[in-house]
Write a structure and sequence with these properties.
By secondary structure, the protein is α/β, with parallel strands linked by helices. It contains 15 helices and twelve strands. Strands 9-8-7-10-11-12 form a six-stranded parallel sheet, sandwiched between helices. A four-stranded parallel sheet has the order 3-4-5-6, with helices on both faces. The longest helix has 18 residues.
């Protein structure tokens, strides 16, 4: 239960189950978000479920089968491949309904050899795709009957990502802590410090703006997100910033305890992922906060962003295209910015609300259990 979309979705659905009067059990290797699971009323069971060892997977199958019997589990929902193999086998042994969520474009490996390993994620009686992009990928690569597919996009917690709840004091605290100037535009790339999130691409785009005389001297770029333990990626970014002469423009912030206020004090949110995103949490959250979003035109992003209305798309991996999108986003008038903020917020409220996601997930559970003659009242 670390950080990421899989873990966040697990917590949100567990909370919805508890609120609906069910008992929510979550089995995982543990991690920092176990405490949050407990807070929402779920019960956590620690098992070595991340292991890909065939022996450990068999041991986990036995442990899960026993757990299912002891706790009278009505349905199993798997969200990751290694745990899914144990869960699938345990579901078969105990004749328990089995649901999966396909969270990403898993690598196929050399000659597609990993496809067999990945295929467990389409063995659910109901297979949840978190975007149309993922649904299309499932049908193309795994030949899944569309009748088993359920398109349930991830959602934003609109009670948290709400501009009206962010006080001036919260923004002033961050601005002071990060030593931001009182004036001048601020752009932010939120996300873990890992190469595919596009930090280096953003540096290239800023360098392009500098070389073409379009980089305002007062502009600040915030790269907000934790680095992986032992990673040297931050040092790589810092070396590129130094070589491009952008040190005065870019700040790397690994510890941000108020990302909602950070969104609010930012003029433009940037998603620069070099690989297609299965959903695009940053794109959705940025719009929920009424901020123009600049993002690559691949993966699920075009499903979430309304080009020219709530943000701007750029050619994936293309620094000049990203630079051009930044100029557009930074150049909109105050009146147009207000209009964009209203339309962006409304778009997320109507299409990507977390409560819509949890309700649709519980409805998928009801459908599967009804097929097994189980009481869903």
């Amino acid at each position: 239960m670390g950080t990421g979309g899989v873990e966040r979705g697990t917590i949100e659905v567990a909370e919805a189950l508890v609120e609906a009067g069910w008992r929510a059990l979550v089995a995982s290797e543990g991690g920092p978000h176990v405490r949050e699971l407990t807070r929402v009323g779920a019960e956590h069971i620690t098992l070595p479920l991340a292991s890909k060892s065939p022996l450990v997977i068999r041991q986990n199958t036995v442990a899960l089968s026993d757990l299912i019997t002891q706790k009278s589990v009505s349905l199993i929902h798997a969200r990751s491949r290694a745990p899914a193999w144990s869960a699938y086998a345990a579901a078969k042994q105990t004749k328990t309904p089995f649901v999966t969520t396909f969270h990403g474009v898993y690598g196929l490996g050399l000659f597609g050899l990993k496809k067999l390993y990945n295929r467990v994620m389409v063995r659910g009686e109901s297979v949840i795709a978190i975007s149309q992009f993922i649904a299309d990928h499932i049908v193309k690569e795994y030949d899944v009957d569309s009748s088993r597919l359920r398109l349930i996009p991830r959602g934003v917690d609109l009670s948290v990502f709400d501009p009206d709840t962010v006080t001036s004091a919260r923004m002033i605290k961050l601005a002071t802590e990060w030593r931001l100037p009182d004036d001048g535009p601020v752009i932010m790339l939120p996300g873990r410090l890992t190469s595919w999130k596009g930090h280096e691409l953003l540096i290239e785009a800023l360098s392009n703006l500098k070389k073409t005389g379009r980089l305002k001297s007062e502009l600040r770029c915030l790269m907000v997100g934790p680095a992986s333990p032992g990673s040297t990626y931050r040092q790589r970014i810092e070396s590129k910033l130094l070589a491009a002469g952008l040190n005065g423009h870019v700040q790397i912030i690994e510890d941000c305890r108020d990302i909602v206020a950070a969104y609010m004090m930012t003029d433009v949110i940037v998603s620069a992922s070099t690989r297609p995103e299965a959903f695009g949490r940053i794109v959705a959250e940025g719009q929920a906060m009424g901020r123009p979003v600049v993002a690559p035109s691949h993966g699920a992003t075009p499903e979430i962003l309304l080009p020219g209305v709530t943000g701007y798309l750029f050619t994936p991996g293309d620094a000049p295209s990203l630079a051009g999108a930044l100029v557009q986003a930074l150049g909109i008038s105050p009146e147009d910015r207000d209009d964009l903020a209203q339309q962006a917020r409304t778009h997320i409220v109507e299409n990507f609300d977390r409560n819509m996601m949890t309700s649709a997930t519980l409805a998928a559970y009801d459908e599967v259990m009804a097929n097994h003659g189980k009481d869903v009242s």
